[in-house]
């Protein structure tokens, strides 16, 4: 399956290579560089590149290309999904996944990669097991290790790998037993010129942070499970139980994990919490244009909208912009033509607005499209779909855990066409 | 830390020039890093010293630095002797790093690598399963041909290991050995065959992977394991699921008949599927009658469905392609929702999924129509995603939604991403040809675009308009005139060529303009692109034929220019045209027909999706993504006309019938008490009858034996949830029962004792089994309604199964290290009996769909356990399946 892995940074240096079968020369990456050059932008590099003897499958995350080399037919999603899992694991281990961090921890990275694949076939991809095999580096442990000469490699063997709940490590102990669940919903929407919704969907996830002693068996029930008609689960969730009772029943992994993700599609009406009023016009006669946007709350269920950021990619012909915001700060990068306005909180009494003029390149013709406005925002304590957790019960252990649930709504890919 | 500073030294010491030099040389040969060679030599000296030292910390430091070198692709092979010495180190981290090193360089230093082999051989005998497994892993990763026999031996031994984890690693080792020495194929197939029978969820994925790599054509090995694999599927780890699903898709296409002929008989299918084996037999005999789905076919489709909710995109895609390729068309619809959900994922996942949707949406529009809006393009999407989405939107366009789509396309055309805008124009063209109602609207829209400021947009519009006009025999003189004017401003060669072609084709409709265009072109001929030159020649020829009075000289001038062109295509064309159109004495018979040749009615081009021809590749494969056969691609065969004998999968038929015509219902009807007593009496007869019924006596003893063991395995899968979710009391029961069976010896003859045993335990299990009934009743309600008439039969079968289960349990106990499961099984003990229904549902949830029935059966089995299990247990210990004689003591 996966023959080799190359990590390539944005300037085109191969800074790590790992082979699971016989060694593949790194010259194979030349084909990748070619494709990269052709694509101009990193995100346009095709994820699958055929070469005479190999196939290069890559993912691009954190400004690093993870390029897997394969030789024979394999479902491409298999490799891509695995590479993403590798990135997630690195992130889990080191907090961030960046070139310097990987270089600093090259030994741990190597050990982890060694465990994740055997002969190119995934062996241990659950972070709980991996962490049992190879302890993630912490500052404390590094210090202790250098003094005592002990190691990062776990000396007990990973029993989890053999168990029927491979995602949970055994012998977990906490003094404070707690289980937190975050219900995070993202609204993906396209709003057209006149403010009507073209398409809107809600993408929700329930992320959990469970720190419970022993082998707890949890059930999570919802007030309105009918909302969740399109879900995907962490492997720990029992399918059957969900199908018959609409209850999430699971033995959780230890630590952070994504319990469930769901999709509420456009068919159900999606409440749009903000609106954007815009007036952007370029005139042919002068090289000046008018620019004015106002952001306001719409259906927020009485909650405040925070963390509003407006970004917009201006047409190439724009030379500069002189704008004044009623609140927050704005920047315009004349090279990338990217306008960004950090609004902050929306006060319904005094709507934030950004007004000013746009200067166009002299002689350049009027741009024929108005820029699209991308919006980011957050609403705490609200799940816009109306999903509500009813209760969380624990079986199998005696103690009383501390339970917490948080709701949040965010903008996903939220675009306003102008 | 040290590796860190080392890395820094490396860079600063070497400097950029050497870094580059190394880069370049390493592309030629990985070992020839001249630039750094001298400095490496020195550094390697002190690494050697560190490795020789007595202190573990120094060794560890050295190993870390070496691994750092390997990671960067630097050559560290000369340290081999020093490193190998540490292979037996007590320190686990050193050991692991040595392994990393060894696997990387053993191929280059074969002789020295042999030094390490004995260490692994010793470790292969270690009492700890994890050490055995890792020894096998490293041993098999060392690609040294000399040790092939040793590896073969190790694999064979490991394949019979008691620990499923070691067996999993054996399955991995098979692939490694095969790639090292394909000569071993036959022997390896034997091991694969053995491991395929394994019933552990740990092994299933890995061994199927090995099967796919070593002997994908030996589909006969799968028969006996097919049902087991289907039943295990939900519990296998996600990567294994992908491999198994792909393999089973291929399998299904060779073994079942097409369900696509008529989909309306669905009700019937369901029915026959729940009915028992004798009806199946009938069915196989006469295939001609209305299609009925093979129950095994149905089993696969049904057991993969929950996996659509996997978090792993690869699993979802695998199930989607399975449904696409083997399910009845009416049922494939359920995959669209899941696929659309994947579109939220990373761009790479989106890319692959969109490609597959594009292929699907050509053939079955209806599947994705409800999700039309999910394919709307966002300005932030990467271009490749945008074009794929467009592709799908085009495929989905129909009379009903075209107006919405066109409005959407209007925004896309104005996009700043010009490549995308151009693709949109193509799309509009395709919609226009596909949906005749909007052709005129599209055309006028495209004509408007001709006045766009962006050249790419205009050029693309010209090309598309040309295609559209060609389709609609011309009442569009105006548009052509308009386009002729554009010729002055437009510079994109394709567009110019298109305009010229269009004018040439319609030269009789624009008699005034055409010659003038030719005049202009003659002027600029030399500076045109080759593509345009060819069209100028064509235009000249056509005008010469229709309007020679005005254009004769011009054409000759152009032909003269073409004669001396640098491009031989153009010179060729010129010569050809001259011979054809200019009358001279040498010109052959053809020139009479020149006009017909040049101005023939040309068929309109078909604007087709580029994904049209991809459907012959299995969806979700690399080959499909590339639209070219990748190495090792396994063709998906066409459905067979007549299904091969389904009884090859049989043996299990009894047991399938049992699993499906579930117990829950049988119990509802006969009170448990009665069930036991009755079946006890009838045991002998039922046993023999069901045996002969399903196996129809035609099978050899050997087959029988295989069948038995695979029966065992499919049952194992169903017992899994017990150990998983750990019904404590239940486990205890099992233990007790196990103990009993151990002490018992051959219990077949001791009927009296058995009777006692039974009555004792059945009491305790009654309570449980009743609770099982409750909860299973709703999930199994389907099946209940069906096999009413069969209840009696079922009880018989159940009894037999109970017997098998007894055997199975004993086997299980020795094969799986139950202690490993212990920590898991304890916690789920029920706080209150009131909760038990939910717990049972848990058990179900964790496992296959049919588990509930089997759970109850297991409980039943416990009650009557202990009469006959030790013989099979002994066999299992030796890693052998039960012999035929033992398998059928009563027949």
Structure, described:
Chain A: Pfam families: Adap_comp_sub, Clat_adaptor_s. Chain A: It is found in: Golgi apparatus; Cytoplasmic vesicle membrane. Chain A: Residues 176-417 form the MHD domain. The complex is a heterodimer of chains A (418) and B (891). Chain A is of the alpha+beta class. Helices cover 17% and strands 41% of the residues of chain A. In chain A, the strands form five sheets. In chain A, strands 11-13-9-8-23-21-16-19-18 form a nine-stranded mixed beta sheet, with no helix packed on it. A five-stranded antiparallel beta sheet of chain A has the order 2-1-5-4-3. In chain A, strand 14 and strand 15 (288-297) form a beta hairpin. Chain A starts with a strand and ends with a strand. The model of chain A has no long low-confidence stretch (mean pLDDT 85). Chain B is mostly helical and 891 residues long. In chain B, 68% of the residues lie in helices and 0% in strands. In chain B, helix 21 (383-396) packs parallel to helix 23, helix 37 (701-725) packs parallel to helix 42 (818-825) and helix 37 packs across helix 43. Chain B is elongated. At the A-B interface, strand 2, strand 4, helix 2, helix 4 and strand 7 of A face helix 1, helix 3, helix 5, helix 7 and helix 9 of B.
Sum this structure up briefly.
The complex is a heterodimer of chains A (418) and B (891). With 418 residues, chain A is an alpha+beta fold.
Name the helicity range of chain B: 55-70%
Radius of gyration of chain A: 25 Å
Which ranges of chain A are low-confidence, i.e. pLDDT below 50, for 5 or more consecutive residues? none
Tally of individual helices of chain B:
46
Q: Ranges of chain B with pLDDT <50 over ≥5 residues?
A: 1-38, 263-288, 652-732, 740-792, 806-891
> Which protein chains are joined by the largest interface, and how many residues does each one contribute?
A-B, 125 and 135 residues
Share of residues in helices of chain A: 10-25%
What amount of the residues of chain B lies in strands?
under 5%
Mean pLDDT of chain B: 70
How is the biggest beta sheet of chain A arranged? 9 strands, mixed
- The chain-level structural class of chain B is mainly alpha
Number of helical regions of chain A = 7
Strand content of chain A: 35-45%
